[in-house]
Description:
By secondary structure, the chain is mostly helical. The chain has 13 helices and 4 strands. It has helices spanning about 5-15, 15-25, 40-60, 65-75, 95-100, 115-120, 125-130, 140-155, 160-170, 175-235, 240-255, 275-285, 290; strands at about 5, 40, 80-85, 90.
Amino acid sequence: MDEIGVAVAARRLGISEPAVRKMITAGRLPRLTGSGPALVASADVDRVTHERRADALRRHPDPAAFARQVREHLWPGERVARVTLADGRTEIADPQQAYDLFGLKHGRKALATLSPDAVALFGWAAVETAASDRKAFAGACRTCYADTAARVHGGLRPTDAPAYRVLLGDPCPADRKRWAAEAEQHRREVTHARMTEQRQRQDAERAAARQEFQAARTQAETAASRLRTATRVYAALDPSVAREAATQARARGAFKAVSRMPSWCDCDADRQCSKHAETDRRAARRPRLGRQR
């Protein structure tokens, strides 16, 4: 587990260090146990980052429109109305408006008054890159710079979305190639996860079917064994004795229902107890008067 300090966590989240300490005190960002400076887990910082992004997305359901507002806040001069002359040149339509807008704070100076939802939704790397002067990126790709900064220092990385095009401009071919590769990798991972889940579900169904079949087989074998045992017992008896034993068993079951049988007897209407069965077998072995004659 990666451990990072409060300063690094504040930079990833795009907020101040006191705000991070308030999160730690409130329990939203757990502090790692141990002495020394406050440390937090990198995974917890990523979790809070995505939570803040989800909250900002609920407040701004149209990221592209919000990105235009952020862009206008960072560079108010871009809102100056211009007109195109007959010779193709462009001129400022309202000088007073231009004077007022150009007099506002712009660039990195405007970050102090920027809505916190901008960093929460787009990431600190994209917002700071958008607030940098264009001269610093002469011939360079802003999207590549923001992506590299986010990969090195952590935070949200730019994606292939219209909102990031509004903030950073059109991406370069390298960005498009990287996004295509990431999308393909994500598709493969999703497909692999689905196939793994399907195999696990099929294995579980087969295991349950085997257990059910084994239980049914055991019950069938037990029933067959009981039937063979009963067949052998009754085959050893005279048929008339067997019929008499069945009649006595039913009678004992009726007597047992009215509590006329001893307490040790557990006969019922379908079977005899062991003591009565032994008594009936002994009676069957005794020679009868009819046979002696």
